[in-house]
Amino acid sequence: MSAGGMATDAVRRLEAMLLIRAYEEKLVELQRSGAPGTCTSVGQEACAVGVVGALEARDRILTNHRSAGHLIARGADPGRLMAEVLGRVDGYCGGRSGSLHISAKKLGVVLTSTIVGGELSMAPGVALAQKMGQGEPGGIVAVFFGDGAACEGIFHESLNLAVQWQLPLLFVCENNDWQAFVHRRETMPDNAIADWAAGHGLPVATVDGNDVEAVHAAAREAVAAIRADGQPRFLELVTYRLRGHFEPDDQAYVDPAELARWQARDPLHGQADRLLAQGALDADEFAQLREQAVARIEAAVAFAQASAWPGPRTLTHHVYAEQGAHS
Amino acid sequence: MTRMTIEQAIHQALAEEMQRDERVLLMGEGVATKRRDLVQAFGATRVRNTPLAEAVIAGTAVGAAASGLRPVIDLLFAPFLAYAMDALVNSAGKLRYLSGGQFEFPLVALSMTGSGWCVGAQHNHNLEAMFAHAPGLKVVMPSTAADVKGLLKAAIRDNNPVLFFTDLALLHQEGEVPDDSAHRVPLGQAAVRRAGTDVTLVSYAKTVEVCLQAAAQLQGQGIAAEVIDLRTLKPLDEATVLNSLRKTGRLVVVTEASGLCGMAAELAALAATRAFDALRAPVVRLTGPDAPGASSWVLEQAALPSADAVVQAVQGMRAEVAVGREALAAS
């Protein structure tokens, strides 16, 4: 591969997107043979990779049910993720979460909620703790949600509090046009999300969410601004959910022409084409990257399937803090 | 001992715990407005007025608790908890479990409820059983100033989310409170307010006093009633109730909350499943009706189980036993 720091980082971003795609395509395949269904983020990989790559280890992330991209971009082990989806002991949450609410505290991916908007309710508290000295110095918090969550009342409560309390919080809205089985055009005025955020006094950037370099640049700028002044920022990433709400979903309700338009704007192809055109990557190297991603996911499946089931006697472990009273 | 109201006991518990642990912070609508001395002592960073936005107040407490702070939130009136349900039930109650134990949620949610102020059903609704039904949460509802202070201090130190309900009618009631700042009442321990051998009266919050009045009347009739104040509803002190029941064989549960699927139903089930052999009469539940709280003083009071009703229930239980004995003798 060609030399040069920028090119190398850009290739790494492509690599990360390929890994996320391979992971989620495998989940779709496993679901067809009886594994639990999942909410995939196929088509939204550039959002995850672009933003998470702009964060540092001291930063914290809150995410939602469509979290695989955020977790893998943060360095989560696909084997442990897959084990969690399959309900095995080696999953990040010991099989208690499944795919929908995976968190990995050691990676800084905290408090995942699958209640649309739940992550928005908790994010100000994580950022407040950071501001009050509980986290690592200089850390900020990023919260990922979608256009569906922007229609929840908690969206406004959360943005308002972050502005009033001057919290070091990056709101990342992956506007993927779909709110479960309802198209965004039925639920809000066009471009409403950025206007709503601006109405709360937040600096907003609206970016092509399928261009990983554009996302990354905007995220770097927003993160640097938050670190500099401690004030919240808002990123709207315009993207599209290429698969259904939940696997299985035949997407019979999706306009085929609209889907085809967005498939033609697949973020992985966009980044690959750019790197190929720049000469940062050649066709063989690209093929090799894809094969490596698929091979890593095959190994992840083998790891997950070899992992033990949790013992039924552990059913009620972790409901309450064992050490009830704090001295 | 110092004589103080329940409202003062809450304030003193907050002040002592904030003094003791700098991770404790107080958030809510008006907390900084009403508790100026706490703002002066601990700073505006730790005593925070919030917008009128219960969902994000509770959510913020959940996020802060998981990140190393120990928040106490004042949500004012219990019906407002409906806006905070997602954060309290879906996040605080479940994310410890769903994460495989990665997070703890040491937070306390304060709210007031109960008849006595004629505020009507959207400020007065005893929701304690709803939260007792949610896994991962603890529920406290004391009746005396000493217990309010001791339980609130224990709740703030607990590593689990605690719903702390204060009975509106008791807010200005005075009681003796130990002066020792180490005074704490452990969560999950009921108190026997009056010892007796003939019948067990179980209650919490304002209806404990109703039971004590009934017990005094019953004493005049030669009936010794034992009165148990649950204080904590979850975890429920089953042992204290069962021990009493094994002694008396008769159980009357008295709550302001309505009966269906409530604490009274839970206690009746406890008696039926764990002490059936000890029961000498059917369990009696005296509860509020399945109706929203009315505002008119007369209607508000009509919804409350009275001491006379408790006395009548106990007399009825003893009558049933007497009739049973007569029937047995005649057979």
Keywords:
heterodimer; A: 327 residues; Rossmann fold; 12 helices; globular; B: 331 residues; alpha/beta; 7-stranded mixed beta sheet; 5-stranded mixed beta sheet
Helicity range of chain A: 40-55%
Query: At CATH's second level, what is the architecture of chain A?
Result: 3-Layer(aba) Sandwich
Q: Globular, elongated, flat, extended or rod-shaped: what is the shape of chain B?
A: elongated
Annotation field: number of helices of chain B: 13
CA radius of gyration of chain B is 21 Å
Cross-sheet strand order for the largest sheet of chain B: 3-2-4-5-7-6-12
| Assembly state of the chains shown | heterodimer
Would you tell me the overall average pLDDT of chain B? 95
Unreliable segments of chain B (pLDDT under 50, ≥5 consecutive)? Answer: none
Report on this structure.
Chain A has a single domain, classed as Thiamin diphosphate (ThDP)-binding fold, Pyr/PP domains (Rossmann fold, 3-Layer(aba) Sandwich), CATH 3.40.50. Chain A is globular and about 50 Å long. The termini of chain A are far apart. In chain A, 55% of the residues are buried. Chain A is an alpha/beta fold. Chain A has helices at residues 5-32, 45-52, 68-73, 78-85, 118-131, 147-150, 153-164, 192-199, 212-229, 256-263, 267-278, 283-306, and strands at 60-62, 141-146, 169-175, 178-179, 182-183, 204-208, 233-238. In chain A, helix 2 packs parallel to helix 9. In chain A, a hairpin with a 2-residue loop joins strand 4 and strand 5 (182-183). In chain B, helix 9 (207-220) packs across helix 13 (307-330). Chain B contains 13 helices and 14 strands. The longest helix of chain B is centred in the C-terminal third of the chain and has 24 residues, at 307-330. Chain B is an alpha/beta fold and 331 residues long. Chain B has a seven-stranded mixed beta sheet, sandwiched between helices. Chain B folds into two domains: 2-177, 3-Layer(aba) Sandwich (Rossmann fold), CATH 3.40.50.970; 191-330, Rossmann fold, CATH 3.40.50. Chains A and B meet through helix 5 and helix 7 of A and helix 4, helix 5 and helix 6 of B.
